[in-house]
Description:
The complex is a heterodimer of chains A (113) and B (115). Chain A is mainly β and 113 residues long.
Amino acid sequence: AQTVTQSQPEMSVQEAETVTLSCTYDTSESNYYLFWYKQPPSRQMILVIRQEAYKQQNATENRFSVNFQKAAKSFSLKISDSQLGDTAMYFCGHNFGNEKLTFGTGTRLTIIP
Amino acid sequence: GAGVSQSPSNKVTEKGKDVELRCDPISGHTALYWYRQSLGQGLEFLIYFQGNSAPDKSGLPSDRFSAERTGGSVSTLTIQRTQQEDSAVYLCASSFGLDGGWEQFFGPGTRLTVL
């Protein structure tokens, strides 16, 4: 069974600083997909970044980047130059493509002005 | 274009009543998913529709839960004889599949409160 673990229930960081959110997962498959979703208080889940397991290069989207360590089954999210609008719950997710996403329990991130 | 929409936004019901939650996916998306998010928890998969294939119902917690997708578009999640433990936010997502990078687009959710 797929599992996703986020070991940091809450984190806080000063505005403009860099923060890294941890995620580990368990799968016996070799080809799969990893995602980070953001859920602000509005409840709307928004895709932040995704990574295909067959790609060795770490995905980057503006201030967001991942450190994908396939052998260690680790997929951390780095947010650079954090902004107040980054305050949200962040969920790490995993699937094999067209199937259900398995999510971790989330990390509540607070950006402090 | 329009995103995934869900209705109602909030639903309060009494224990034992039936409820129906609606999801309108993004036009053209072939895959549709239902998830449940209980207070302070992650998202729990409920059911998945892909085109005309039989749905994956492996996440439904009991036979009180059912869902259908009519015409490959709108989906309705029905909870019969609601219990207090059914209180949660129910999220719907849709996906275009491989061409869309398997990204799931989520709706704003329906917050269900069972008194």
